[in-house]
Write a structure and sequence with these properties.
This protein is of the alpha/beta class and 335 residues long. It has two domains: 2-138 and 319-334, Glycogen Phosphorylase B (Rossmann fold, 3-Layer(aba) Sandwich); 153-312, 3-Layer(aba) Sandwich (Rossmann fold). It contains 13 helices and twelve strands. Helix 6 (168-182) packs parallel to helix 7 (201-211). It is elongated.
Length: 335
Amino acid sequence: MISVIIPSTPIEKIITGNYKTGNRYVKILRRLGINSHLSFDYEFEQSINKTKSAILLHAKKNYKTAIICQKRLIPYALVLTGTDIYSDLTKKNSSSYEKCIKSILGAKAIVVLQPDAKKKLLDIIPNLRIKIHVIFQSTNISEQSKIKNNGREVSILMVGNIRREKDTLLGINGFIEVYSACNGVNGYQIELTHIGLGLVNDYTKIVKKHGESNRNVSFLGFKDNSEVHRIMSVSDLLLNPSTVEGGCLVIKEAIDLNLPILASDIACHKEMLGSKYPGLFIAKNCNSLSKKLKTFILDHKVRKLWKKSLLDSPLAFYKEKDEAKLLAELAKSIL
């Protein structure tokens, strides 16, 4: 059996990006005829005697699980997150760096979610001898839904748990700045909806304090996948200001739903949307975000261009069967 292990969170069994990825991996592997099981890190030892190999998500957070696998001679593939690659592995001589390195060097295979992550990893560990698999995430969205035409009502959506790495506060502040300039002008009515929980209390309080100062900003908290997809399908724009890799899945979901995207110009977004995608703004720059958002709201031609440009995305025609093929190759390498 392949055990797919995801890290635990301060809030017990919360739905995170790691959970969604791990759950999808298990479903795909089972459809491929490979016995697999999803568990949190603290549950791993309960099924360890049945585990022939493992897929671990997150190098630092699954460090203890990686060490257990190494001691038990259980081969494992390690899925590196954006936090691993673009944050923890850049802090040489830190505890986080050391944990990531030990998890990586003990793995039989490495998985990254987009090509720039592989390049970055090899910059950090130039002589890495372990095979690196680039496996984009897929969705089970079978058809591109039509986005409603709101006319002068513009619905903006942010999806993802509230975290500093996702720069949720920048998205909120950028919206509020544009709201002041655009709402009511020529009849335009704009709103921002956020879906996701707050994982870091102090940061969440700051974000919500800023957001709740504007009556057109709403926080819906956790919603299941079907409800998230429904809300996305009736929104006009996905706003993703993330400063690291976070957001790979929701970006792919927006592409498949034909929902225009305003995203930071980090490497992950460029890999997924294409470096020439017109809806990219300068990461961590509120002024850049606001200018792009204002143009999208006021100019219908810009809206059509961003939507049409999604078809030029490298992932426009990437499907679950493509991910399944890559996961089958990965499973073969650790079984």
